[in-house]
Amino acid sequence: MIASQEERVHLAELNLLAGKRAKASSAYASALNYLVSGATVLPEDSWERRHENAFELELHRAECEFVTKSGGMGMGLSSVARLSENHGGRLWAVPNDGPGTAFHFTIPKYHQ
Known about the structure:
Largest sheet: 2 strands, antiparallel
Radius of gyration: 16 Å
Shape: globular
Number of strands: 2
Strand order of the largest sheet: 1-2
Number of domains: 1
Helix content: 55-70%
Distance between the termini: 34 Å
Order of helices and strands: HHHHHEE
């Protein structure tokens, strides 16, 4: 059983590495599993303390969700919402004059 934060972060990093390798070989479904697992084991404060790891897991996850979901299942939209909200931004929709809706999002500039 993994109890310490250091072990959880290390496991998340291993899942990120495996996810990136799987994605590079076009095994997007496998990559998605690794990336979701990695994001799940990160400590709750990872967006503050491990920003780069959390962001990289979510970014690759969004890319894999986009290419593995066919027929417009909306997975990309939920990923954009999750990423923008985790960065203090927001996502909103504006109806078009004709059919459809335009989605917009903001992400504040990150300063170290």
